[in-house]
Amino acid sequence: MNKVVVNNILLERHPFWSSCGSNLETLVRKDYPNASYFCGSDISALDLDLYEAKKVKGITDRGCTIDGVLGIALDFQSKKFISSQLLLVELKLNNESTKGFSCGNIRKKVSHSIDLLGADVQIHSNYLVVFENTIASKFVSSFHRWVNENELPKGVEAISVDEFQKCLISPSNWPIKSKYTESHIKDGLFVHILDFNIHEFIKKCDFWLAENKKAYYANDYATCDVICKSLREIICEVKELDNLTQDDLLELEILEEELYC
Hints:
Elements lengths: L3 E3 L1 H5 L4 H4 E3 H8 L12 E3 L1 H8 L12 E10 L2 E13 L10 H15 L5 E9 L4 H13 L7 E5 H7 E2 L12 H13 L3 H20 L3 H18 L7 H14 L2
Parallel strand pairs: 1-8, 5-6, 6-7
Antiparallel strand pairs: 1-4, 2-3, 4-5
């Protein structure tokens, strides 16, 4: 697969985000806790299994969705993402042999995930199945044969962990940089947490939300990414404090919702 630019903004504005928003590293660790070599904390992802568990009623066959969905763009020019799409990713890091591999299971997961996501956002024509580096080459050749024999849907592609990570241009490697850093945003907010001044904290968050909107309409997506990530993480921490009132929690939840508007 050719290199693509990670577009977290696309994903974090998706209607599923508030229910199953995560990041690539968390998705990997959920099923493969020892996969410490797998980076991706700055790459947003949708956990479709979690979405079904929360939102879809009457599901009897859980686990028939792709592991994760990423937001990507085919290019990035003049501060703009070009051709933004959703990328379906399945993780098969424990597979040691092509023998007994279920093409039917992959076919079902791809088909069901596409149906679940709908047609609001274009889905990339490649569906990636990620294998350990040591075994991936065997699956690459087998996948070519299985696609030609119609055992797998057209576009399903086997890829190694290293190749997968190389093809993703993550926010930290975007060609433009954010106006702000995470530490700059968080440090200014932590001051109010240490003072237990929740109202000043919310007021400062409102300031950053306004900055986020300005950046978005200026096509400054690198700045949007840093602001949203910083606010999301710190609001999550603040909600765990013991001295919050119900009104405080409600205001924090409203702030979180505004991040996804």
